[in-house]
Design a protein that fits this description.
alpha/beta; 5-stranded parallel β-sheet; 7 strands; 13 helices; Rossmann fold; binds thiamine diphosphate
Length: 326
């Protein structure tokens, strides 16, 4: 499909928003204002923005621990940032961080920290949609390393058997902590695993936001009719596995080469070809930065949970794990 310059500028703005949001997080981590494990998705923005733009109004998303660029475009930036900073007006009252964040309103389902264990859960959500005869599907995002977990195979197999409305979106960033894909599996494309479950599988360029969006749209249309599939998007993790990981296991040359294929620069090139100007792109930068700065300022001014709220464990269960998310 052809997109107008304005539509492409819209995608560009989202890619930039994803990257600048994580750069802001990085600044906070470096200043010691944020503590904990941060798995940044810098470099993977096209894969994530492509996914969130493909979702239909009734579809659900199960993200991963590395999905901030996607969430920074799907969710309300202020409420997301309040959650990130542990504030009581965050999506989950500051208890979920961005790792387990969920929202019934936004149709966002929580990540299971036990990699792979979330895949049968996601199939369960999809099966529930089918049983309720909803015209909706689930996109379940998982990393390349996660595909090697036993639960994933069980989940994918049962999804196929149940004709569950689900798309498994493998965000293949080349690495699972220090383990390269080549040491995780003998297969070239992770999507070929779909053959074993009797469902379609396709591998695409994960640094091309349009390709990701259009592939996912098609896969979701099929999934809503009860035809699940696997989409693998190949991209690259620019940062360490988490902030603080020096990444000594990675060949610096491989890293440098991969970073040359920057999804933002790629779209920039297309935009210049369509007559976009430096001024238009610079205005996007300013607008995005302002939005992000406002979200962080809002979150910093927001209240921390009270002692009572912190001790209210029922709330953790109800907001993060409760059965009423669909
Ligand atoms: C069952 C389980 N084993 C190990 C871990 C620790 N762990 C957290 S992230 C990660 C690597 C995941 O790699 P991948 O699925 O490729 O996603 P990426 O982090 O590269 O986005 C591991 C091993 C975990 N959380 N759960």
């Amino acid at each position: 499909m052809n997109y107008s310059k304005n539509e492409l500028l819209g995608f560009y703005e989202q890619l930039v928003q994803g990257r600048r949001y994580e750069e802001k997080i990085l600044g906070y981590v470096n200043e010691g204002k944020l503590q904990g494990f941060f798995h940044l998705g810098i470099g993977q923005e096209a894969a994530q923005v492509g996914v969130v733009n493909a979702l239909g109004h009734n579809d659900y998303l199960v993200p991963t621990h590395r999905f901030h660029p996607g969430l920074a475009n799907k969710l309300d930036l202020k409420t997301l940032t309040a959650e990130l900073l542990g504030r009581s007006n965050g999506y989950n009252k500051g208890k979920a961080f961005t790792f387990h964040i969920s929202s019934k309103k936004e149709r966002l389902l929580p990540v299971n920290g036990m990699l792979g264990a979330g895949i049968p859960e996601a199939v369960g959500y999809a099966w529930a949609l089918k049983m309720d005869e909803k015209d909706a599907a689930v996109v379940c995002v998982l990393g390349d390393g996660t595909t090697s977990e036993g639960n994933v195979h069980e989940g994918m197999n049962i999804a196929a058997i149940l004709d569950a409305p689900i798309v498994f979106f493998i965000e293949n960033n080349g690495w699972a902590i220090s383990n390269p894909v080549s040491e995780q599996t003998k297969i070239e494309d992770l999507s070929t695993r779909a053959i074993a479950y009797g469902m379609p599988g396709v591998t695409i360029d994960g640094n091309d936001v349009i390709t990701v969006k259009e592939t996912l749209e098609k896969a979701l249309a099929e999934a809503r009719k009860g035809r699940p599939s696997i989409v693998e998007a190949k991209t690259y993790r620019w940062r360490g596995h988490f902030e603080g990981d020096p990444g000594f296991y990675r060949d610096p040359q491989e890293h440098e080469e991969a970073m040359k294929d920057d999804c933002i620069k790629r779209l920039e090139k297309i935009l210049y070809g369509q007559g976009a100007t430096d001024k238009e792109l610079a205005e996007i930068e300013v607008r995005v930065q302002q939005r992000i700065d406002e979200a962080f300022a809002y979150a910093e001014k927001s209240p921390l949970p009270t002692v009572e709220e912190t001790l209210d464990y029922d709330q953790v269960y109800a907001t993060n794990l409760g059965g009423d998310l669909l």
